[in-house]
Design a protein that fits this description.
Blueprint (H helix, E strand, L loop, with lengths): L2 H6 L3 E4 L11 E2 L5 E2 L4 H12 L3 E6 L4 H9 L4 E4 L4 H12 L6 E5 L5 H4 L4 E4 L5 H4 L4 E2 L8 H12 L3 H5 L5
Pfam family, one: Hydrolase_3
Cofactor: Mg(2+)
Keywords: Hydrolase, Lipopolysaccharide biosynthesis, Magnesium, Metal-binding
Length: 173
């Protein structure tokens, strides 16, 4: 099956957070509070793919209030924080949404993402992922995690589906 056909099957885009939606660095205040930094381009990408009718979600090993706030602000439907073992959760998400692996795209960046990346229909990794993880991917972003990689991946998927121009028409008039 070619990439365009795979992309057309996608109904849910799942993402890791640290190293994908963020640069992977951990920032803490003097009081020990965690600070997350997000790229607005990734936020636009999430809204864009939602507008195309594709649900969005995250599976992250970490859990933080700033992260939860940002995900809710973006309207992310599947929010799963504090999960290091992502595969059992993926299976639960599939059952609940009546989806198959082929209908899932996942953006990851590290070894903990490998079990999910190896099963989904459209595995994507960020450019600064380890080489072994890159070998699993159908697409490797040019951007690093936290630097617009999600937006790039979304535009790539929508282009493969033949929907990108339609989705951007409003902005490019």
């Amino acid at each position: 099956m070619d990439l365009s056909e795979r992309a057309k099957r996608i109904k849910l885009l799942l993402m890791d957070v640290d190293g994908v939606l963020t640069d992977g660095k951990l920032y803490y205040t003097e009081k020990g509070e965690e600070i997350k930094v997000f790229n607005v381009r990734d936020g636009f990408g999430i809204k864009l793919i939602q507008k195309a009718g594709i649900k969005t979600g995250v599976i992250s090993g970490r859990n933080s209030k700033p992260l939860l706030n940002r995900l809710k602000e973006l309207g992310v439907e599947e929010i799963h924080l504090g999960y290091n073992d992502k595969l059992p959760l993926l299976d639960e998400i599939l059952r609940r949404n009546q989806l198959s692996y082929e209908e899932i795209a996942f953006i990851g960046d590290d070894y903990v993402d490998a079990p999910v990346l190896m099963r989904v229909g459209f595995p994507i990794v960020v450019s600064n992922a380890p080489e072994a993880i890159k070998r699993i991917a159908l697409y490797i972003t040019k951007a690093s995690g936290g630097e617009g990689a999600v937006r790039e991946a979304v535009e790539y998927l929508l282009e493969l589906r033949g929907e990108l121009d339609k989705m951007l028409k409003y902005y490019l008039q």
